[in-house]
Give the backbone structure.
Amino acid sequence: MTDALPDRYAVAGHPVEHSQSPFIHAEFARQTGQSIAYGRLLCPLDGFAATVRAFAADRSAGTVRGCNVTVPFKFEAFELAARRTPRAELAQAANTLRFDADEAGGWLADNTDGIGLVRDIERNAGLSLAGRRVLLLGAGGAAAGTLGPLLQARPAALVVANRTRAKAESLVARHLALACDVALSACTPAEAGAGFDVVINATASSLQGAEIPVDARVLAPGALALDMMYGPAAQGFLAWAEAHGALGRDGLGMLVEQAAEAFFLWRGVRPATAPVLAALRARLAAKAP
Ligand code: ATR
């Protein structure tokens, strides 16, 4: 039937008006010929589950198949699902829900943030993580979503450094079984040591406009220093990286790659990410003051 309504998706969060996900998924759909409509779902802070359930039940404009989930609901999304992928279990947070019918097992929660980060580093930035020394700054939701896939990329060492040391320790403890031959450890930023090949800022420091949470000696010459933020929020970290001989990278590539993995979970088709990342960079540059 050519006039069938598109399948529907949305990004659920608070706030959501800034989200680039509708643009990214519209580009993926155009490129792959998939018939989808992707919108924004603003959820009240105390009403995530009710809002998402009502969205999923809405049959007025096509079947609702799933949603992405952003701050601050990734933990609630994980709780809401009947089933979880292993990487969501490790993160204990979900950024993607697929609304499978009860007969098919019920809602599935996934977390595509970590694989998105790894693909951005390895494919888009062209740096293989295997055998490298990696420093992950932060131990909140953003860091938790990425630690499992980072370990699976088999760096030589992975240090999780957080202002509150106990949080880094408990995140590391949860991932020890996955570490195998990776030297995985937890510390504070001051204890992190020096000379990492890859430094990833998963703290909220950039969002707050706060100081860079670690000393520049953590950067090996030519290191890749990636902040999960993008736009003006990431500029301080990128400038710091470049002032200390590192290659700065923002979180836009990760954003596009995590979206591609969600698109694959929903549609079974892998979109090409490079043209969408280029289009997104151009779009944001055109909007910049
Ligand atoms: P998110 O889901 O974005 O990760 P979160 O779970 O609140 O948010 O975690 C925020 C992370 O940023 C934490 O690791 C936090 O450190 P603490 O565990 O010590 O609170 C870290 N963070 C926030 N502000 C920071 C700052 N100004 N400097 C360094 N780390 C900061």
